[in-house]
Amino acid sequence: MVEPLVKRAYETEKKAAASYTDGLGLIRGQGLRYTKVEDVVGRIAVDTIIHKHLMKAILEAQKELEKLAGEGPIEEVKEVELVPEQKALVKRFAEMHLEIEKDMIETYQKMAEKMTHPLFKGLAEALVENEKEHHRILAELIAKYRE
Question: What would the pLDDT profile of 85-122 be if each residue is shown by its tens digit?
Fold first, then answer.
């Protein structure tokens, strides 16, 4: 289970972010503003704050996913024959979400182009690929139940 590791990472990043922020204040107070020392510590402080918030977001996502999982992972995926009403429902559902996925692909692509921090840029680029995969799967579902 990854949750304890994420909690540990979050707590560690939280402490580190506070320490880097305090340290940055001390460094600046010692007349080291606009120096290489401030630059290095500042860059690490920024990354650490981002890490802290990413770990918190992962923890929150894991809690939400636990509710969604219900009884746990699906043991066996069965292929069943759908009646026309079920096919129409699945097709409508997939078409509606296909538009959402298209919008998210475009949004994440624009974010990736505009992001300057490498962590944010990499995350946006990874999200683009994830949304493209969703789009592909939904398009396959629509094609399968088109009648």
Answer: 999 999 999 999 999 999 999 999 999 999 999 999 99
| Threshold 0.90, pTM exceeds | no
Q: Which helix (H) or strand (E) holds 136?
A: helix 118-144
Q: Which SS3 state, helix, strand or coil, does residue 70 take?
A: coil
What phi and psi, each to the nearest 5 degrees, are found at residue 111?
-60, -45
Give the tens place of pLDDT for each residue, 44-85. Answer: 999 999 999 999 999 999 888 888 876 666 677 788 899 999
Contact 147, 84 (CB under 8 A): yes
Q: Take residue 64 and report the two structure tokens written for it.
A: 């939400």
Q: Within 10 Å of residue 13's Cβ, how many Cβ atoms?
A: 20
Contact 132, 109 (CB under 8 A): no
14 close to 52: Cβ distance less than 8 angstroms: yes
CB count within 10 Å of CB 45 equals 20
Token couple for 144: 């399968």
